Amino acid sequence: MIERISRRSVLKGTGALATAAALAAPRVARAQKKSIRVLLVADPFYYALSGVAAQFTEETGIAVNIESLSYDALNARLVTSFLGGHPDADVISVDNIWLGQYLESKWVKPFNDLIKADKDINFEDFIPGVIYSINEWRGQIGTMPVAPYGMGVMYREDSIAAAGIKVPNDGSWTWDQYFDMVKKLDGQSFSGHKMSGTVVAGQQPAPIVHMYTQLAASMGARWFKHFPEAPWDFTPTIDSKENIAAITLFRDLYKNSPPESVNYNWFDAGMRFAKGDIGMFYWWTPYFYLCRKDGYMSGKTSVVADKMGIVPLPHSSHPQVISIGGWGLGLPANSIAQDEAWTFIKWATSAKTQKAMALYDKYGYQFSDFARRSLYGDPELLKIYPYLPMQLTALETGNGKISRPGVPTYTTLESIYGLNLNKVLTGALSPEECAKQTTQYWINVLKGNFMVPFRRPSYDDTLEATKALITSLA
Q1: Model pTM?
Q2: Please, are residues 90 and 337 in contact by the beta-carbon 8 Å criterion?
Q3: Residue closest to 287 by CA, chosen among 305, 262, 303
Q4: What is the pLDDT of residues 283-302, one digit of tens each?
Q5: At 144, is the secondary structure helix, strand, or coil?
Q6: Cα separation of 80 and 417, whole Å?
Q7: What dotted CATH number matches 170-311?
Q8: Tens digit of each residue's pLDDT (9 = 90 or more) over 217-240
């Protein structure tokens, strides 16, 4: 039976699963090398990839055992395997914010040499902004992109029209205009239902940080004084005027949301929109197709399926920054089947396989998270996923290293940030107090991890550097 597990879902018992994973006995290494073990997070790409995995065995003769876990349980199990030095899987899904730690700890094998030696990958077909945001760290390609996520705005076309509101299709609107539309929609009755203007993912720590940091980055807020460009200076800038303004706006958006959304995770927020009583909201691009269904991988059509408008994010007076996150496939350094694992990774991230995943219809076409540019112009895919051109623009112009910098201390920083942002929604902290407290706690963490002051060599981590790297490897 398929469980309703969303990205980083916080399900009842997740803590117990993570603890059990951390305490589990090491697994015995397999002698049979014509089979591989694949360990994935239970995001939509897992269901699509599992659905077409038999094709890989038919093509290569390599058997595949695919297992999925919730976000926290996956991270706990992987770290346990790496620290213990015991092989657990041959292919793993790696969140972009784990990549720096995994590479610097030598837990995963860099792919630079493998990519350069392999002529079948067509590496230049990958969107540079995706590789930069989720797969590259200090000039090393640590994973291959299997499911990159950007962000955009979803709205109910019928309720928007009834309210006399016009949403621009080209992104030519500001966050102030977006908020004015939200306020106008909030409390309106439509089709016998009282509408909320928007919905937020308010659960801490991770969901609220994901949603909030898109708004903050778009409004000019940054995490650190100087990163990712060299020289690196991790002095926090969370107490900037831009960030305080963004926190204030996020609080006001919550005031026009269902009160219970203070505890919503990723999936809760997306599926609340799918229920039909939300005017508009911004969220990760997988929800462009997830919201067309009434439930996670349920196959049942939602009430908004044929009424959804999808448009680019609003902007501010600062240059637009669209958040990019998502998943890559990595090769654990302790895998005992590295050749077979690399064969699977190449296959799973190929244009052919990604298209097959998009056409897998057991759950009603629930995958369009492509890292390859060529797929965004495919006529067959455009008929099913007509929003692909807008999604491509988001990925081409996005920057995940600004919105959520995946530095090795990220998880700790996110925990602090998420807790304080949630307190703003509940009224326990003002935006100014949130910014001040977060800054103070971050300084303590960063000093304790020898990041403030930062004395290690920096890396000039720019999109242009990644484009040059892609060319050199291709």
Answers
A1: 0.90
A2: yes
A3: 305
A4: 999 999 999 999 888 889 99
A5: strand
A6: 26
A7: 3.40.190.10
A8: 999 999 999 999 999 999 999 999
C-alpha span between 377 and 374 (Å, rounded): 6
The strand pair at 151-156 and 308-311 is best described as antiparallel
Q: Which DSSP string do the residues of 377-405 spell out, in sequence order?
A: G-HHHHHH-TTHHHHHHHHHHB-HHHHS-
Average pLDDT for residues 174-185, to the nearest whole number?
A: 97
8 A C-beta contact, residue 315 and residue 218? yes
**Structure-derived torsion over alpha carbons of residues 210, 227, 71, 332, reported in degrees to the nearest 10:** 160
Kindly list the domain boundaries of the chain, sorted by start residue.
14-149+324-401+464-473, 170-311
Q: Indicate the SS3 state at residue 321.
A: coil
Report CA-CA distances (Å) from 106 to 81, 82, 109, 257, 339.
13, 9, 7, 44, 18
- Look at residues 284, 214, 278 and name the one whose alpha carbon lies nearest to residue 250: 214
Per the DSSP assignment, residues forming a β-bridge with 140 are 137
Residue pointed to by tokens 């897998």: 360
Answer yes or no: are the C-beta atoms of 107 and 332 closer than 8 Å.
yes
Q: Please calculate the CA angle 417-423-427 and round it to the nearest 5 degrees.
A: 150
Asked whether 150 and 395 are in contact (CB, 8 A), the reply is: yes
Write the CB contacts of 227 (distance below 8 Å, at least 6 apart in sequence). Answer: 233, 234, 401, 405, 407, 461
**Sign of torsion over alpha carbons 426, 430, 434, 435:** positive
**Burial of 443: CB neighbours in 10 Å, binned 0-12, 13-18, 19+:** middle
Is residue 101 helix, strand or coil? helix
Q: Whats the size of the chain, residue-wise?
A: 474
* Contacts of residue 104, Cβ cutoff 8 Å, sequence gap at least 6: 137, 138, 408
Cβ atoms of 437 and 429 closer than 8 Å: yes
- Res. 6: pLDDT tops 50: no
Using the Cα atoms of residue 148, residue 153, residue 157 and residue 159 in order, give the sign of their dihedral.
positive
Superfamily of domain 14-149+324-401+464-473: Periplasmic binding protein-like II (3.40.190.10)
Task: Round to the nearest angstrom and report the end-to-end CA distance of the chain.
Answer: 42
Question: How is residue 228 annotated by DSSP?
Answer: S
